[in-house]
C-alpha cells in the first residue's frame, strides 16, 4: 500500500499540493462544506501573511478579521477589561498570554 500511495503524496505527485488533497477529501465526503471553506480560508491567510514580509501577533486585525469569518468560530470573546487597581497585574498577564500566542502562531 505504501508503495502505491507514497508517490501520490510526494511534492511532485498529483496529490502533493495541500489544496488538491483538500478538494479530494471534500469530494469524497470526508469533510463537509463548512470545514472545506474554513481550511481554504486558513490556507489563503497563511499564504497572504507569509508573502507580505510583516510580523503579526495573534491579536492583530489581520489575523482576527479572517478568524471571525471561520464557520468553526462562533464568536470571538470580547477584549479583557481591566480594573484600574489591577491594571498593571492584568496587563502583565495578558502580555504573557499574547507572547505565548505569538510564539505558536507566528507568521513570517
TrEMBL record:
- Matching PANTHER family, A to Z? FUMARASE E-RELATED (PTHR37941)
Gene Ontology terms describing biological process: negative regulation of DNA-templated transcription
Q: What is this protein called?
A: Mannitol operon repressor
Q: One of this protein's Pfam families, by short name?
A: MtlR
Spell out the SUPFAM superfamilies in the cross-references: MtlR-like
Which organism is this protein's natural source?
A: Escherichia coli
Amino acid at each position: 500500500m505504501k508503495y502505491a500511495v507514497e508517490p501520490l503524496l510526494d511534492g511532485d505527485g498529483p496529490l502533493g499540493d495541500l489544496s488538491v488533497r483538500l478538494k479530494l477529501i471534500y469530494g469524497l465526503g470526508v469533510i463537509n462544506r463548512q470545514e472545506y471553506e474554513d481550511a481554504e480560508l486558513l490556507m489563503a491567510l497563511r499564504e497572504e501573511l507569509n508573502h507580505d514580509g510583516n510580523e503579526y501577533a495573534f491579536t492583530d486585525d489581520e489575523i482576527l478579521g479572517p478568524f471571525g469569518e471561520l464557520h468553526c468560530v462562533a464568536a470571538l470573546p470580547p477584549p479583557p477589561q481591566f480594573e484600574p487597581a489591577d491594571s498593571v497585574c492584568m496587563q502583565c498577564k495578558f502580555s504573557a498570554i499574547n507572547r505565548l500566542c505569538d510564539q505558536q502562531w507566528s507568521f513570517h
